[in-house]
Predict the structure.
Amino acid sequence: MYRQNASRDRYQSFLWFRRAAEAGDAYAQFNLGLLYKKGDSVDRDDAAAFFWLHQAALQGLAFAQNHLGALYYKGRGVARDECAAARWFRRAAAQGDASAQQNLGQLYRKGRGVEQDHAVALGWYYKAAEQGVASAQNLLGECYLLGKGACVDFPLAMAWFRKAAVLGDAQAQLHLGLMYQHGQGVPASQAQALCWFRQAAAQGVAAAQRELGIAYADGDGVRSEPLRARAWLQRAAAQGDSGAQYRLALLIASGRGRAADGADGGAADDAAAIEWLRRAGEQAHVGAQIRLGTMYADGCGVARDEVAALSWFTRAAAHGAPTAQFHLGLMHAHGRGVAVDEAAAAAWYRQAAQQGNADAQNNLGALYAEGRGVARDDAAALCWYRQAAERNHPLGQFNLGTMLEQGRGTAPDRVQAYMWMLLAAANGDEHASAAKSCIARHLSPAQIGRAFDLFHQWQLERGPLAQ
């Protein structure tokens, strides 16, 4: 009975609004337009909504002008027209309508219907933010965080984010968490970061849910709780967050996050991990693409499929990932999933090598040393071997030592050659010990002592470098 009465009352309201609107009352026209726009008490009708909101807007009602601008922007009930949207937003914004001020700021930020101008966008955000609009305060914080329309100013960004976050704006809560996490404008505090992430995550923000999941997985700022990590990561992953999908796959593959009774384990978990990796990879998550490429190349967790491996590595390489570029070089060099093409291998190695990938630097050096895929060039080979060796790459150090001992690409230097063989041997290269013994036969005790001095000096100055 209550529902019937409520429905009847709403329909009576609709009738009153329609009568008043037809009589020219601007507020009734506005309310009638909203009813049609939302489908409240009447079937949704975008054309009717546009008609009545337009009537109210022509009478100068700011609320109606803002809603009319939104209809033009989205192309609802009228042909999409971003310039018309900007005109109506401007009329409403000039009357002090905070929503219209924010909307107009967004158009200037994106360059939609107006010429892009971050400084003008900042000005409109300010007007809306000063009226207490949390979403505008968050956008203002983003301007100062990213230096859009103003110089980067972390304290100001933090201040505006905090105002919006206190009012419950989920994006501002996420931004505050990230600023505390990275120590931007404040001392880094994972505890504070997690506090804000929890608030944003509770409102369904996938990025905040992901950060909570990672924190519980790694025990960063909280006790490590794989089950809780899995729960948060699943929430974010289900929303399509590729970073959460990737981390969830790693967590599942590791066997962590499994219930104490072993539920959801075994083959089901393996399949779930691969599926989450695939979803992340399809969204251009480079880490997932590289991992999938490696799995298919090695037949680890999936049936070996070198064509699939090539496809995933190619996707990651297109985003500039040096690890993927190196693997593509290997596959072209050895004809895995593709015909042998040493010129293509050299090209892929070069892209990775130029980004500091030591494996690629060593392999590119080998191609130059042997004249495979490129013209033989001992000087180029020496250069690439040296770059790999400087990154503490054992094979690069061995190859550099060999070139120096033989005087290829440079004058012979057995002291330097011996030093690099010492480093290669210390890093586990199985051939370096025998090679340095051969070199030592041609060195005096003083020269060997000098090589050891260089060896110890290099270790003290460089230490173990990431390859």
